[in-house]
User: Fold these one by one.
Assistant:
Number 1:
Amino acid sequence: MITFDNVEKRYPDGTVAVDGLSLEVPTGTLTVFVGPSGCGKTTSLRMINRMVEPSGGRVLVGGRDVLDEDPRILRRGIGYVIQHAGLFPHRTVVDNVATVPRLLGASRKEARATAMDVLTRVGLGKELAQRYPAQLSGGQQQRVGVARALAADPPILLMDEPFSAVDPVVRKDLQDELLRLQSVLAKTIVLVTHDIDEAIKLGDRVAVLRPGGVLAQYATPEELLTSPADDFVAGFLGVDRGVRLMSFFSSADLPLRTDPIVTRDDAELAVGDSWLLVADDDGRPAGWRDGSTDTELLPVGRPFVPGRDPLRVVLDAAVLSPSGHAVAVDDDGRALGVISGEEVAAAVRAAHNRRETGTPSPLEMRKSR
Amino acid sequence: MSLRIPGYLGTFWELLGDHLVMALGASLLGLVLALPLGLACVRWPRVYAPVLAACSVLYSIPSLAFFVLLIAFTGISRTTVILPLAVYALAGLVPNVVDGLRAVPDSVRQSAVAMGFSTPRRLLTVDLPLAIPAVIAGLRVATVANISMVSVGALIGMGAFGALFTASVQLDRLDLAIIGIIATVVMALVVDAVLVLVQRLSTPWMRRTSKVSR
């Protein structure tokens, strides 16, 4: 556990970077520090491994004040991932990853063996091991950075804007990879970002900091979205809180309608002006047919799998569908039913009402870990 | 026209050996002094300006004056030539060492600190290797300059190939001057090529950056 106890960082020129920060990062969870620039999030992070020393209050790691520890020993037990990875350009990938084991006294051979294991664990092939960092893409470098931080198996991992220097596609991969690793390793992670979406996606808990280094709110992503503490937090979360909140609701128990699903033969005979979902012989959705006109089938778009995709995906599919309905399929891709955007919205309202009356909602789900 | 070097000057190979020992000795001594000075200038940025000023002042002392001044302490010896040339080399080497160390990306330095490197260990195993290209660039300039400057030592009787130039005038033998010039130029080219090779071998990470993969 990491504890900030009324921590303050005031520089000699009077600038206050962190002001009265008190919070606890429970063991084995991922906490995100998020806020605009100048909110003291990186300063706070660096006080955990003593790269910055507090001018007031205490930072405790595992119950011990970090100021009582030898900074070099402390840091070797805390993994650190930085923006741009910060790999050593003059060392090969495997030697970069072997750095902390070497500092801890392992022989070159032992350290390299450990490094190879960790590289495999973060999804990097052995063929990359002998390359130099300049021969890797930005995403690969960042993966090596994560591998290097994990090499000595530290219980704590600090990540300072780890994914902000890579393009959005790679960033999403790296975020998913971090969640996958965390589900296996259960490290105590503190991650700093200025990207609220990243914070919502990755954090078990999110600390929103305001300029001047004051904690605005420390809560789960879901609490932040449903009940932001004040206008600053609400403004920082943006205008589409409701839609994003839907990422936390499951699509498992949505009321699906099966009556618009027809076979190709039935579609020929159908009359009336309602939309029909035409299915193949093996039950897979082939396309939408507008009953009022005799036209080609319109594309189904991306169907959802009930229970696996969150409500946000369902609503998105409904909005994009020509018929205004999202299509549910099973794991084999066979059509299960359809649901309209209005019906999704009604399901969300019902889930909210249940939450407010204290009844546990069947639609609630935790992020897929 | 005979191309023989007069016997009292020594053989060609003796002159070559002398010349190399003095020129390379001065470069090496300059490097040994420049590395700690440069590290100190990066560690304590305030000392950089005075150190640089001192190097420039020393550089402005004429070499002949320097030699004559040193004879009182080191006599007519190779050391008398090596010391001033090493001091001149500092004026070029110190800024190169400092620039090379300062060019280490901040993210690299920060991550070294965050992994638990002590400052001396970081300077020696991270910052200094990354400064090698800049340091060797400075060393190449200094060494070529030294190879040329050793000739001036002939004025105090320690000039190696420089002795060929004074003898050329005294004996009215142009061929000796030409031998001296060609030998000096070829030596400079060869030594420079060796330094380029040293840089390539000592910085393998700079060579293999062409085949970037995604």
Number 2:
Amino acid sequence: MSGALRFPSPFEVGTPPGAEGWEQLYPYYLLFSEDRRAEEEQRLWFFNGMHFPEAMTPFDIITAEAGYLAIGEMSSRMFCIPPAMGIDFRVLNGYVYISPTPVTDPALIERRAAWFQERAGYYYANWRTLYDEWKQKLIGEIDRLVAIRFPELPDVEPAEYVFSRRGYGTSMDNLTAYHDLIDSIFRVWQIHMEIVMIGFAAYFTFYDFCKKAFPEISDQQVTRMVGAIDVSMFRPNDELKRLARKALELGVADIFLADGTGERVFAALRNSEAGQRWLAEWEQSADPWFYMNTGDGFQHHHRAWIDDPTPVVSVLADYIQRLQRGENLERDTEALRQERDRITQGYRELLATEEEKQAFDQILALTRDVYYSIEDHKFYVEHWYQSRFWNKVRELGKLFVARGFFQNVDDIFLLHYTEVERALMDLLLGWSIGSASRGPAYWPPEIARRRQIMERLRAWAPPPALGVVPEVIGDPAIIMLWGITPERLRAWLSPDEGNLLRGFAAAPGVAEGPARVVLSVEELQDVRDGEILVCSVTEPSWAPVLARVRGMVSDIGGVMSHAAIVAREYRIPAVLGTGVATKRIRTGQMLRVDGDNGVVTILD
Amino acid sequence: MVLMHDAPFILNFETLREADRPLVGGKAASLGMLLAAGCPVPPGFALTTAAYRTFLEENGLTGLFRLELDRYPSLDDAAAALAARVEEAFTTAALPDTLARHLSDAYAQLGRTVGSAEPIVAVRSSAVDEDSQTASFAGQHETYLGIQGFDELARAVRRCWASAYTPRAIAYRVHRGLRLEDAAVGVAVQLLVEPRAAGVLFTLSPRTGDRSLVVIEGSWGLGQAVVAGEVTPDEYVVSKVTLEIVRKQINPKPFRYRRGGSDGTLQREELPPERATAPCLDDAEVVELARRARELEKRFGFPLDVEWAITDIPDRGTIYFLQCRPETVWSQKERPAVTIAATNPIMAIAQTLVRPPSR
């Protein structure tokens, strides 16, 4: 591969000081290793900061395992997406690097196309019905998850277990519950990818059609024709707007404007009758809509609004003030729909033949249906399910805290799920036998060590990509979701252009303002009105913050990334996928974000 | 259509339609169509080919167009000699009285619209050939900017007529087997717009043929610098669908052309660096140009190539279209089929995935 463009080899990347031994926190099969080195060094690996923006704790890596198992299953084995097998991944210094696995044999691609046409074709032909069923299937999964119980371990089992001749005891209940919990997340991610992978394939076809018909059409114009409008992802934010209006109606607005933390605001509300009525309104919205979490569901510490309302209390305060100023908070969905139809009609008229217009209509109709699901599903899986999943893991954590294995419930997230199973066996053995488990001696120092490693890993800045830039990338998901194309990778490799950064022109317009670099969800509350948000990746749930910023810049993000959609909705200029924004830009620097041309200029 | 010998010598732009193309040439006819489409066009009139015929006949010049191949070693030399004879004869021959009176009246009338006895005008040849792109190649697109006074006007008109007999135009007609004596051009006489900026625009991307874009090129001053390729113009790319500016490329434009003397010479004026590097159009002007170009294309029914100018005179409507013709490069190409399976989206998806990605 002499002369090939390449990023650093994964084997050239060192361990951050103080994080030595990080490899032991993750399963052997997720590490770059000498035995697979020859193959690993020939591939492109890019940092999936879109889904895993921070260093992943050992337990949280389960979302990557479940996700990529499901992507592989659905792309390669179930629907046989012609040019794409699954997406491989590795953990390096705690960060998730991914690599598409292409099908290169043309004869095999043709054979897969026949299978794909038959199998995915069945889904496309029945898409709306299947998606309705899919939602019910997911809600059923959430019900089953919520029903999982980790019963406390009694000194003596209830007598009824004996007289009903149950035959097994509470240790077995806990073991089963644990297996159910792990099975649940793996199954849900399969169901997630059941619709998503072939969804990307349909969207990619429309995208490809547009690029052929209009060679210079921008990605955002394509997205605007497809635009999902009434998706459930917008609902939580709409509920907040409703609650802001209620606060004014009930005369409790001042409570939100006076104080910051969610806990204190909720305490103050409980003190008055009006406040209690507002809280009843909150309850009405909370399940399921406030299972929205502050991240994208892939990490346990991105808490749901329902569990920690602090971030949304400041949003509520903001909405209340804007209502008091007489502003209209509603998204003008009718205008968005009209704009979408007008643009679609405009491009359609420019097509050369009636046949093309007909093909355009058909592919677009399918793509709109499919894309609606791709946007809409996120609430069900990444938010509603994932928030409840992490909480269920915490219930298991309590069992360990009660038996002295851990000091804090969240310590459980410092164990890989396979280690949790072993710790659980240790705990159950000790309890059932009546002897000492090893855990209380073994885990606290180990957890302290791991916590320190995680801190060091979090402070490390992962390079955007590793390995060799491929000639072509054929995987529709990689192109559409992450925006990774050979051109983009070459741009990441090109030398610095002084104070310029280039990325995807994701949402039109030009804005100037001071930069606010946000590396974690916790830092979101520092964002001030009129700033330019600079982040590794924007999460869907950040939408309320986007109402305050003047522009947005990200390291990662493609055409279909939620950030792009939200930025367009809020009409904020955005440049996504710059690769290096969070490294090159410092908070306070004046920026110009040119969302028309995909250029960010550091003006200082 | 009017029979040639009955045809008027002069027709105002307002009255011109596509059917008048053989009488006044493509450029003048397109100005009439621009006006009919509600586009701002500087007022003016066309001299018909009947005027040209009369000029030839009354001056006894009809027998002039013999290519004396036996006297010269090559076609090129013979063509050059004929071109020289035509130029000599055309510039010395006078306009017949009736024609001169008609021209003088039309010129005076044009002057009255701007309150001037001797208005400053642009005089352009207007090719009668079917294929105006080839006409352009053959050099029949003479333009004299800033002409003032009847004598200068009459001279510019004769020079336009002579432009049908440049060596290249002669060689072209010979090559195509066209009779030399049939060559004729109309002439368009138009009030001169002294623009702040001017240039050309296309209702498709000249780069890729993308029909969803309007691409505008412009520079400071008269449009000659852009048309002749003497400056790298600013480039503004606008979505025809949303009228959003998709891309802007502002280039240094170190000089501009202004009107020189009354004989049509131009004056080149160097510009200070801050002026040279500034965009020659603001966003609103870019969008307005694109919007008008879009309407025009819809009306004509095919992609267009338009010369435009913009003035700083505030209350008179500041955008002008000076010329409009069919875009010929991409329009004549076969558009590649976008999709294979028009009737089945599922097949289309499978086939899209089987083909290697185009990027």
